[in-house]
Amino acid sequence: MTDGDPDFVGAKAVLLCVDRVLVYQRDDFAGLPWAGLWDLPGGGREGNESAQACVLREIAEEFGLALPERRLLLRQELPSMADPARASWLFGGWLDEAEIAAIRFGDEGQRWEMMSVAGFMAHGAAIPEMQRRVGLVWSALGRGAKCITGPTE
Questions:
Q1: Alpha-carbon dihedral angle through residues 65, 71, 73, 75, given to the nearest 10 degrees
Q2: What is the full DSSP assignment across 48-85?
Q3: Rounded CA gap, 146 and 16, in Å?
Q4: Integer Cα distance of 120 and 115 in angstroms
Q5: For residues 3-31, b (16+ Cβ closer than 10 Å) or e, as one string?
Q6: Contact at 8 Å (CB) between 43 and 116?
Q7: What is the sign, positive or negative, of the torsion defined by CA atoms of 19, 21, 25, 26?
Q8: Per-residue pLDDT tens for 120-141?
Q9: What's the CA gap between 72 and 95, in Å, rounded?
Q10: Number of neighbours of residue 152 by Cβ within 10 angstroms
Q11: C-alpha–C-alpha distance, residues 40 and 4, integer Å
Q12: Where does the Nudix hydrolase domain start and stop, copy by copy (predicted)?
């Protein structure tokens, strides 16, 4: 399968800065999957968009950040949590401090945080599969080896 496969469900992103990861606490509505738990940016596919377009749209909607595709340094296909017979995509990349300062939280979720990776991995109210996915990206991108410091455009 490629990231353009018509059968993928959605995409998530692990966005790091040094040893912190961008996360948000999901709304606590009755019937909402993983209600009230800490999650990663991303969500479901709309129309025929690519996996990259899906995750970048979700980041823009949820956090007000317009990141270019080249900022997605890691791409991995995984089984969807909602339907393991279908694919989802995981992306990893780095944020800079200016982008973090520019975050404008959208209307989905209760709050956001740049949480320490260790804190997220140990958090009792984080979605366990998202903890595993953070671990995958954390290992692949060098365990906090950098945070972008120069121009990102």
A1: 50
A2: T--HHHHHHHHHHHHH-----GGG--EEEEEE-SS-TT
A3: 9
A4: 6
A5: beeeebbbbbbbbbbebbbbbbbbeeeee
A6: no
A7: negative
A8: 999 999 999 999 999 999 999 8
A9: 10
A10: 14
A11: 21
A12: 6-140
Q: Residue ranges per domain, the chain? A: 10-140
User: How many Å apart are CA 130 and CA 124, to the nearest integer?
Assistant: 12
The average pLDDT across 89-113 equals: 95
Give the CA dihedral 110, 79, 114, 127, nearest 10 degrees. Answer: 50
Contacts 24+ apart (CB under 8 A), 81-86: 81/127, 81/129, 82/9, 82/33, 83/9, 86/7, 86/8, 86/9
Give pLDDT tens digits for 27-62.
Answer: 998 888 888 999 999 999 999 999 999 999 999 999
User: For tokens 């353009």, what's the residue?
Assistant: 4
What is the Cα–Cα distance from 32 to 52, expressed in whole angstroms?
25
